[in-house]
Design brief:
There is one protein chain. This protein is an all-alpha fold. It is built from 17 helices and no strands. The chain starts with a helix and ends in a 12-residue tail after the last helix.
Length: 356
């Protein structure tokens, strides 16, 4: 019995297809099957390898930090090479610390600034005239909202009449107010110094205490005043966070804090405790003489290469020199009776009250 020709042809075609695919490798056969469905994908081993490679790339991208963009001011600052004593570049302002500055780099930069200032102001000192702790604490309380110069011109008359805490505690407030009038806020200051003197007499035997916790309990005495007294009358380290100190440490990007206690803590962590008192003098001297509040003399600044805020003030060297104050500009300092080291360095005593 003969088979139909159509069936025999079909079987032969199927056998031929099988024979032709039998010679292909497995991956090829798989690819061929997928191609028949309109798709082309690699075999299983290749697919696994591609997935693993993609996952590794994702992990690497996650670990890599995003590229940092320099602020426009930083980009300008990179092109400026500041050399003290030579021509200063065109005005630039770097409002942020150097890009990527680490904690270690910040400590090194801060300490280098202090070393540079110590060379510029080797005679730095408290700019209030005093002969004992009592005179210093009274003068410091009076220095609020006025200059040390005005206090120094006022206290000789006060201490001539009231040389001890006992004398000032028993003083007539109206007489004290009249003496303190030139310092401003004289009524509040009179109340503070008389009240302070009474506490010294009643609780401390007429002596100024040498401990922070005792000093801050006195009327009109905060941490700033306490550290002035501790550092300069008792030789105990302290940081004096006055308006000059606050302004400069923020300009130098040592801290962005605005609260005096937080500034004190942040800056104190950058320096050994033994350096705190002189650090305060260096910074305050520089703030009064060169790094002024409204128009810093950037072109005459010895630490310009270390300052992120270079360019906030006058950068032209000749114009900057005209902005210098006190002994740097040939003018008297704050004290009527300055230390000998200050005089030896060319400093000039301040004139007494009423002097022309």
């Amino acid at each position: 019995m003969k088979r139909p020709a159509g069936k025999t042809a079909a079987k032969k075609a199927t056998a031929s297809d099988k024979d032709s695919s039998a010679g292909q490798p497995a991956a090829g056969r798989t690819s061929a099957r997928k191609s028949a469905a309109g798709k082309t994908t690699p075999g299983k081993p290749a697919a696994k390898k591609a997935v693993a490679k993609k996952a590794a790339a994702k992990k690497a991208a996650a670990r890599k930090p995003p590229a940092k963009k320099l602020a426009p001011a930083q980009a300008l600052a990179k092109d400026a090479a500041v050399v003290v004593g030579k021509a200063v570049p065109a005005k630039t302002v770097a409002a942020e610390p150097p890009s990527g500055e680490s904690r270690t780099a910040l400590v090194r930069r801060a300490r280098r600034i202090d070393r540079e200032l110590a060379e510029v102001y080797p005679y730095a000192h408290p700019e209030l005239d005093f002969e004992n702790p009592f005179q210093l604490i009274i003068a410091t309380v009076l220095s609020a909202q006025t200059t040390d110069l005005r206090v120094n011109q006022t206290t000789p008359a006060l201490f001539a009449l009231y040389p001890t805490p006992e004398d000032l505690a028993a003083a007539n407030p109206e007489e004290v107010e009249e003496i303190l009038r030139p310092t401003g806020f004289f009524r509040a200051k009179t109340k503070s110094v008389i009240g302070l003197s009474k506490v010294l007499v009643e609780e401390f035997g007429g002596e100024v205490p040498g401990r922070l916790e005792d000093l801050v309990k006195l009327p009109g005495v905060g941490r700033k005043t306490a550290f002035v007294v501790l550092g300069n009358a008792f030789g105990r380290p302290g940081i004096t966070v006055d308006t000059h100190f606050q302004r400069l440490v923020r300009r130098w990007q040592w801290t962005d804090a605005t609260d005096p206690d937080k500034i004190e803590a942040a800056v104190g962590a950058l320096f050994p405790k033994s350096e705190w008192t002189m650090l305060s003098h260096h910074v305050i001297f520089h703030g009064r003489r060169i790094c002024h509040a409204r128009k810093p003399a950037c072109g005459a600044c010895p630490i310009a290469p270390l300052c992120p805020a270079y360019g906030e003030g006058e950068t032209d060297p000749e114009k900057a020199r005209k902005l210098l104050k006190y002994e740097k500009g040939g003018f008297p300092g704050q004290r009527l009776n300055p230390p000998q080291a200050y005089l030896d360095a060319g400093g000039i005593p301040a004139p007494p009250l009423g002097a022309g």
